[in-house]
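> example.struct
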């Protein structure tokens, strides 16, 4: 490798990186709520509302309510695993595509396992509905918390190993680049979900909005701290050219469509 090539600063186009993160979080939350809505229809419930941050389903039986509540976290886990497999098979795809798949994978896995932890600890949320009435209740909550915490950490660990395979570059620059991309993705996710909350008919301080924002801030918290682990030798970094995010107008145009639909249409709520 020439001296010029080895010392060139890797390209990171921040508008494109923001667009990728905005698409990832919009799809993660919209599909999560969409799975609730589709399950509601599939089990014979009465779908009342489908929004950017919540779904309202009138279930006639306890089983219907449990199936609707548990469907979305289960989907998140399945989607995360499938995205993981996809990421392993597209090593030669554009760097922007690989970063999107990695981020979308992480979001789905963290949402799925995060609900296990949150419902176990606080006894609220999707999976709290699933175990409601199961006895002894305290034991189910302890099991959910333990399994959720262990799987959350395991998936973050696995995501960091995938990041090591694709981030490229070397030394401190590599760590700084990974950290900036993660932090930017976290902030972008918060802004997108908050923007959707501004249009919620129940108000910004309502339970659907506060719960939705809390879910994003909590489930995606690894984006704030996971790079500290990434420095360790237990996360080998492949010797390859650095992952570069270049100016991609297609990603920015796609983000404008996806995010505006999520915020301005789903944010206002669809009524049935």
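> example.seq
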């Amino acid at each position: 490798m020439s001296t010029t090539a080895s010392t060139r600063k890797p390209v990171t186009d921040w508008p494109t990186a923001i667009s990728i993160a905005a698409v990832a979080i919009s799809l993660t939350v919209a599909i999560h709520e969409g799975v609730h809505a589709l399950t509601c229809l599939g089990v014979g419930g009465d779908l009342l509302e489908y929004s950017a941050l919540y779904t309202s389903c009138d279930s006639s039986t306890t089983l219907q309510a449990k199936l609707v509540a548990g469907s979305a976290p289960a989907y998140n886990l399945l989607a995360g695993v499938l995205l993981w497999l996809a990421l392993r098979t597209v090593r030669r795809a554009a760097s922007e595509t690989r970063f999107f798949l990695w981020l979308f994978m992480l979001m789905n896995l963290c949402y799925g396992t995060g609900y296990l932890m949150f419902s176990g600890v606080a006894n609220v949320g999707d999976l709290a509905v699933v175990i409601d009435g199961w006895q002894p209740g305290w034991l189910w909550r302890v099991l959910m918390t333990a399994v959720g915490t262990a799987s959350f950490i395991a998936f973050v660990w696995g995501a960091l190993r995938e990041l090591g395979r694709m981030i490229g570059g070397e030394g401190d620059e590599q760590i700084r680049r990974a950290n900036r991309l993660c932090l930017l993705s976290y902030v972008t996710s918060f802004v997108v979900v908050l923007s959707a909350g501004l249009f919620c008919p129940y108000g910004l301080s309502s339970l659907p909005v506060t719960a939705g924002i809390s879910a994003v801030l909590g489930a995606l918290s690894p984006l704030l701290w996971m790079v500290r682990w990434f420095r360790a030798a237990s996360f080998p970094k492949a010797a390859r050219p650095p992952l570069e995010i270049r100016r991609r107008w297609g990603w920015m145009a796609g983000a404008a469509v996806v995010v505006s639909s999520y915020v301005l249409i789903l944010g206002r709520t669809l009524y049935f």
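> remarks
Residues 4 and 246 are 19 Å apart (CA to CA).
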